[in-house]
Amino acid sequence: MLDRRLIRDDPDKVVKGIESKNVDTEIGTVIALDKELLAIQKQSEELKHERNVKSAEVAAKKRAGEDADELHMYLKNLSQRIKDIEAKSKEASARLDELLLTLPNLPHASVPIGKDESDNVVRRTWGEVTEPYFDVLPHWEIGEKLRVLDLEAGRRVTGRGYIVLRGDGALLSRALVNFMLDLHRDQGYEEVLVPYVVNRGSMVGTGQLPKMAEDMYHCEIDDLFLIPTAEVPVTNIERDSFTPADELPVKYTAYSPCFRREAGSHGADTRGLLRVHQFDKVEMVKVVYPDDSYDELESLLDDACVVLEALELPYRVLELCTGDLSFAAAKCYDLEVWSPGVEKWLEVSSCSNFEDFQARRANIKIKKAKGERHRFVHTLNGSGLALARTIAAILEHHQTPTGRVRIPAKLVPYMQGKEYLG
RNA sequence: GGAGAGGUGGCCGAGCGGCUUAAGGCGCCCGCCUGCUAAGCGGGUGUGGGGGUAACACUUCACCGAGGGUUCAAAUCCCUCCCUCUCCGCCA
User: Fold this and answer.
1) N or C, which terminus of chain A has less Cβ within 10 Å?
2) How many domains does the structure of chain A reveal?
3) Which domain holds residue A60?
4) How far apart, in whole angstroms, are the C-alpha atoms of residue A181 and residue A191?
5) Same domain, A78 and A136
6) From the candidates A350, A352, A355, A361, which is the catalytic residue?
7) Distance between CA atoms of A404 and A396, rounded to whole angstroms?
8) CATH of the domain at A384
């Protein structure tokens, strides 16, 4: 959520920031409604003050045994006026809150201006992207050949976009999760195991609701949602809390499955493991002191890159432009791994700084020192990594001419010593 | 799922229509005293919004789980909902 005071004091900045994100909002209405509400509240406050003073007079008279009927009549009338104006104020305030929740975060000044993904900037590339000297099979072919991936079974059990990993494929998935969690623990993150179903407040807190409602699996009878990322439960651990400044940063890592309806994204790039409705992911979340959040973003990015390097997968780091930035993000880097079978860069991680956008929604504050105003923390998160596409990349990038798949050395201890699939 | 009890400031805990714009305690901060430490003494210490200030000061409104209602006046009375605890039932 944006700071109402910022919207009031510097509307131009807010309008420009939102425009650069290339989304339609009712920012104009918000600005007007904010003014209107302030005026209503001022009026209401004055009347309430009068009521408080005069009511105290009634109490004083009664104690003195005097008659207060005249004041009674006056106050009865005053109270009715207050009630009327309060109703107006409540209505305006509810409408304003609703609209405020639909405004996206503003991009950080360092974010390149651009209208869509074609304007993203490649920050750096790691590893060699070489032309393979044999025909690399796409992951769904090599996966089915090696009996580690069973797409048909997934369709049968649930439907399109759901997959079954079997045998060493399932082991590989588990190995990756364990490897990543161990790595992030060593990087100083606290491992947490969290619910995969969350309430509405949590979804609003991290910014998935109200905007992304259609992408969410929703259990109506309990009004609970399947998480699209561990970011949601993990960040909301801190909801409605005050953290002493000297306890920051707080760093968490968590494994979770992620559920995404992917409404309206059928068609391209959906084969095999490229875009599925349920995938596993290891996530990192940081809750940090505001002044440090951009340094923390860089180190978060480094922590994610280490995973890809350990898996010996070539990747590049994209700096998202304003138009491609997600709703809640102020700045974001995507990590894309090269997959020679499909000849594509696959997004396997996204590292974002939300500044105080989520903290305002979720009410995560820093315990203030004497005489200071409360400040909100900054929150960040990054995948480290999303499994489905990582597995796709391993199946393709580490494929051998003999139709086997080499397990990266760092992963072998997690694979019961196996050095190859097949 | 059934029955009962309860939700008050960072924590404990009183208040159950107006002398509470939340008593008292703990914790925390500042000062005093004590050759260190502990104890003791004095003062301060919630959140959010508005006005005000260079910044303070100051001022005002709201907040006692959430939302509605009664009343001139609600932490206090009424209604609805949520949550926690205890006991019972069911169950992996």
Assistant:
1) C
2) 2
3) 4-100
4) 7
5) no
6) A350
7) 10
8) 3.30.930.10
pLDDT < 70 positions in chain A: 264-268, 368-373
- List CB contacts of A344: < 8 A, sequence separation 6 or more: A269, A338
Residue A201 burial (C-beta neighbours within 10 Å; 0-12, 13-18, 19+): middle
The whole-number pLDDT of residue A267 equals: 62
Judge whether A239 counts as a catalytic residue: no
Task: Tell me the per-residue pLDDT of A154-204, one tens digit each, with 9 for 90 and over.
Answer: 999 999 999 999 999 999 999 999 999 999 999 999 999 999 999 888 999
Secondary structure of residue A256 in the 3-state scheme: strand
Q: What does the pLDDT read at residue A369?
A: 62
Domain-located, residue A112:
no
Written as six digits, the tokens of A285 are 């979340």
Positions of strand B less than 7 angstroms from a protein CB: 10, 18-19, 29, 47-51, 60-62, 68-69, 71-73
> Angle at Cα A146 formed by Cα A143 and Cα A150, nearest 5°?
50
Q: Do residues A167 and A264 share a domain?
A: yes
ipTM associated with this complex: 0.84
Give the Cβ contact number of residue A102 at 10 Å.
16
Residues A284 and A417 in one domain: yes
Residues 254-273, chain A, CB closer than 7 Å to nucleic strand B: none
